[in-house]
User: What shape does this take?
Amino acid sequence: MASRIIELFDDKATVTGIQEKLPYLFQIAEKDSSRAGKVGMQVGSLRERIIVALLIYKFGEANVETEIPITEPEVDVKVYGAPISIKTKTGKGFTGIKVSWTVDAQTAKEFQKLYEPVCDILYINIVWGGIGGFYYIPKRVQKAVLKKMGNKNYIKLPKAGTNPRGIEFTRDAFSSLIEHKLTRVIEIQWDKREINYDPYKRWLDYWRED
Assistant: This one.
């Protein structure tokens, strides 16, 4: 499976398409999820769908599984049966990146103690007006970094008494994942365009249909 995902990074046409189209598509996702000028949390789900659509386009609908059971909380999609987690972040730095969205404060310590990587990661770093990237972090890279750092240094526990929205990688852990020699990256210049896009238009068109 790893070799198939790497096709995204080795095929020049695909690389160019990602570099040229992803900023535009993510800009539309922000417009779709904005209210009063602020981008809502739902933007993450829209970005995920854009990446899944890329995988379907590249590998074919029959080879991309999108209906993932809730029992696999870290997995967002499967390509040729192999699980992948899709993660996105706006801005530089390696803080705030979730390992899982489903861990509550009571079970966080147990999660940290027992955690083992279960899937490859596709990570998109959005830096509007600057350079970010589209990264592929294989599961074996995650396992190597985890083994080297240990679980307590790899996973950041939420603060006591808070209601955490998931559990995060430590800054040092995710930095090590990104900088690992086996991690692949496509650099992206994240420039915004002047676009005429109305997030209500498609729904309005349905209402107008006879």
About this structure: The chain has one domain: 2-208.
